[in-house]
Amino acid sequence: MPNLQGVRRRIKAVKNMRQITKSYKLVSASKLRRAQERVTATRPYARKIREVLHNLSATVTDFTSPLMEERTGNRTLLVLMTADKGLCGAFNANLIRSVQQYIADHPSERIELITVGRKGRDFFRRRTVPIRKEYINVTAKTFGYDVAVSIAQDIMDIYEGVATEEDVLAARPDRVLLVYAEFRSAISQVVRIEPLLPVGKPAAGPSDAADAPAAGPDYIYEQPPAEILGRLLPRFVETCIFQALLESVASEHGARMAAMDSASRNAGEVIANLTLTMNRIRQAAITNEIIEVVSGAAAL
């Protein structure tokens, strides 16, 4: 029979744990609301800049850019966006597992990583996959567009071979893919692996993109189309990174809220079971005392 005092200690410990999980749930619910508003507000802009870029690239034929250069090599750069903290269910594990599955499915490719978030950095730091750059504590608090600009500039420099002092043609990747969690709802996040560079086809960029129309609109240009396209390409990459960051943050808070809600419910069930066990122990002790009293009285 378990010790009554030990069961009471366990009940107290589980109650304290439930208070913590409830607090995490409330904090995540508050952050999720703000993150969801930011995601909803930026999606139309990301969709429109993608549509304009694809229409321009289809009509402008005399423009070339390193960001649109199709390469046939086997170097792939994955931009993995995970969380800096845990306690968010399978959020980080699903993203890491997707990267591992991609690596297993493409054994002929030389894969490198750019990690955004501490969890992805810590996991792959102990593996054989090289990490070109890492960003931690980026999403720990509310961030602005300038963060996406900094990350996007580093990615574009690496893709163009500017950020390395080695042999440029050997060090630069041939393609860049985004790995992030698309926010659907508080209980639904979908892992996406989508092409970022080279820019060209309508498949590039974060999700939630409508298919580009077959015939684009007839634009009236004030500057030459090639000049507009040259300025639009970096802005497009920055917008993709910013949208993916917002999607990842909203997905993280949604996953944490759902995980903490489930943990609170499980703690309630554990408390109920332990309380039942405690009552049984007390009842058994009372019964034994009554038996001892009756036996002593009968002996006298």
From TrEMBL:
Q: In which compartments does the protein localize?
A: Cell membrane; Membrane
Keywords from the UniProt entry: ATP synthesis, Cell membrane, CF(1), Hydrogen ion transport, Ion transport, Membrane, Transport
InterPro entries reported in the protein's UniProt record: ATP_synth_F1_ATPase_gsu, ATP_synth_F1_gsu, ATP_synth_F1_gsu_CS
> Topologically, how does it sit relative to the membrane?
Peripheral membrane protein
Q: Which Pfam family, an example, fits this chain? A: ATP-synt
Spell out the PROSITE patterns in the cross-references. ATPASE_GAMMA
Q: Does the keyword Transmembrane helix apply?
A: no
Which Gene3D superfamilies is this protein grouped with? Answer: 3.40.1380.10, ATP synthase, gamma subunit, helix hairpin domain
What's this protein's function?
Produces ATP from ADP in the presence of a proton gradient across the membrane. The gamma chain is believed to be important in regulating ATPase activity and the flow of protons through the CF(0) complex.
Family indicated by similarity = Belongs to the ATPase gamma chain family.
Q: What does the annotation say about its assembly with partners?
A: F-type ATPases have 2 components, CF(1) - the catalytic core - and CF(0) - the membrane proton channel. CF(1) has five subunits: alpha(3), beta(3), gamma(1), delta(1), epsilon(1). CF(0) has three main subunits: a, b and c.
**HAMAP family named in the record:** ATP_synth_gamma_bact
Q: What is this protein called?
A: ATP synthase gamma chain
This chain's source organism reads Chloracidobacterium validum
Name of the coding gene: atpG
